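Reading a protein record of the kind used here takes little practice once its layout is understood. An example of such a record is reproduced below.
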Amino acid sequence: MAQMEQTAMPVGGEPLELSRRSRARATSLVLTLEVSDPDVVLELRRREDDGDERDRYARAALRVGVLALRAAGGQIDAAAVREAGAALVGEVRELLSTRASEMTERLASTLTQYLDPQSGVLPQRLQSLVRKDGELERVLRAHVGADDSMLARSLTTHLGEGSPIFRLLSPTDANGLRAQLGRTIEDALADQRKHILREFSLDQKDSALSRLVAEFSLDDDRSALSRLSKMLTATSEQIGKNLTLDDDTSALSRLKRELASTIDQLARDNVEFHAQVREALARLDTRRKEEALTTRHGIAFEDRLGALLADEAQRLGDLYEATGESTGAIKQCKKGDHVVELGADSAAAHARIVWEAKEKQDYSLRAALEEIEEARRNRQAQVGVFVFSRKAAPEAIESLQRHGADVVVVWDADDPASDLVVRAAYSLARALAVRERRTDRESLAAIAELERAARGVEKQIGYLDDVRKWAETVKGHGEKIAERSARMADELRRDVERLDAQIASMRTASTE
């Protein structure tokens, strides 16, 4: 739909609204047209809208339409037009039929005159050309026939025995091509021989051999061998200057000073480290002796374990409770010194881990397992951890080991490095609590990974015994302690991270 203002009249009977400026008769009208005919709209849109082109085109189209409508306003006799048209068509049809017949007869006569096999002009002409002794055969015989043809005479003239090309190709003619070629090759070989002999002659100063000998002569300062000799001499002098200890500015002297300084610093650091280790061991030994003389050394051991467990529980989002002074599910039973309840975000939320600490001599592994089992029942826990003091642990017991749902740990409260054993046992206990909650087939792979991680932790915990033994002879094993401690800490950190990763994956699976 297009909206426009034109000084025009409606086209094709379209509706229009007229707004007259004056009701009096005038020579112009102002029309407001709404054009909906697609063809008219298309033609009007092809003209520029911002100029007078569309107005002029609309006025012209309106004029043509008005004149056409005016001419069509008269009465036309449709029957007369129909009869006149029919008569005209009949006459044209008859005329075309007559002309077609005449054209066909004339064409047949002409084709017969030229193409008839017996009397046609074209067959007779072809016969005269291709018959024996005809015109074509006579022409070919005259040009390419036997000895007397034009071609034979031309070849004899240009290629015969007396022709110039025959003499040129003759092997016996002194001026022939063969003789000329031989002389040319001999002259070229002679020139090449002279040039080669000249290049390999020492009598010529500019020959290739003379220049090569000059390049390898030490008498000429510009020769390659002389330049190479000078470069080697300069390089040797530079190397000797840098690798001598007589010159304080040489590279070797600077390296010697740096190595001596580094070694002195290492020696001072080693002495300082040994002194710090001896002081720390002395303080630990003093504190251990003081606690051994008091009656609260067992209680202090339990309290120090509780402090470590509280820190670890806070880090992992678990709940810690000291339960050594309160009774549990069993009447008048206080077994179970500490209880850790896994946080709500854990895969085994609200699962309970009971801890029993002992610094008592002559306490066997069997007694420890029986006591931790009773502690599990008393505190209604899924996993139990029994912590031996290093001073009271049975001989040949490993620092970390698992027995079913229980874990046995050997901890030295006076050695901060031994805290890693408790943290590893904590992670292992959390994993066992998760396993108690999830025993389906999908968790078997994770549990196997936990088992491998636990074995790795047990292996690394064994190294703590080596560290403890080496610490007793720290003067001779300082470097060994540092190396083993660093390696052991890295291994323990990786194993604990592996345990935490498996617990996190099982926690995610449980939430899904």
